[in-house]
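Support reply, case 0932

Customer input (verbatim):
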Amino acid sequence: MEFALIPFALVFLASIFQGTFGLGMKFMAPLKWEAWWLVHATVAMVLFPLIWALAVVPNLFEAIANAPAEAILVGMLFGFLWGIGGIMFGKSIPYIGISLTYGIVMGVCSAVGSLIPFFQLENATSLPAFPYVMTGVAVMLVGVAITALAGIRRDKLEQQGKKSEVNLKVGLTIAVVSGILSALLNVGFVNAQPVGKAAEAYGTIARNSSLAIWVVVLIGAYIMNAGYAVFLLTKNKTWGSFAVPKARKAYFWSIVAGLLWFGALGVYGQGATLMGDMGPVIGWPILLGVSLIVSNIWAYLNQEWKGASKPFSLLLVGLLVLLIATIILGYSNGVA
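Our regenerated output:
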């Protein structure tokens, strides 16, 4: 029983990292977004994953080179597509607001990122866990929807008397596509599993083999994210923003956010691997659901819900539903 709890403990720890890394984005100034993001992406998607993987995966590059080329390319492709989803997330916010965008993207990302790997399993619909997985994902979607609604109502209280331009059709379309693409990070992790097997052949323990997988998947993610940042730096002529005075705090938080972001993925990968074939199926929605709870705890501590008692009460209902979904999904992993 103690061993069985370790994978879930790892996923919960990853959720804390995932729900916390966004705090760093509050400290971008005086850096331009693209400068801050390039530093963040380099730490989160290249430096930290490589350093961690090199520390625990013997002959990392040789192991990756001996993995099937198809697994490497597919993993990189899904990582690249995830990067597009992240950019579309930012594009949706001006149309429908951050709360609705976040709710839609989180909900779609959670469902798609769980169900695609599940239906890739052999005879998925015949597995005893099938009804529990479907129920857990459905309840998770309800919880995300309720928390998003609470955020929307809070935003309306803050925007009273202010003019706002909302293009629901365009914003919803972009947000849904963003959610689908964002889910492909987990799909890439699943489809690049042969990279992990190659690492195990070189003596890597199963739990740490996931680090080799992330190195591959995040190459594609970095190409997209760094490429977009460089494009903006060139287009906006903001290369000089790297040298702005009093930017030490912004650089610090860019690095910390990067460490937390990949800390979440790295630990999640370890927990999901220990869960077996069902790990990415149930671990992914748990990661996103619990991280949503954590991020809202931080929001409460930062007084973002001050003066919005009714929306906050609705938020608590949503968080309770997310907890119930987490319990259902956790139970599904033990169903024989």
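We compared this against your earlier run and they match. Two observations from our side: The longest helix spans residues 206-235. The radius of gyration is 20 Å. Please reopen the case if you see a mismatch on your end.
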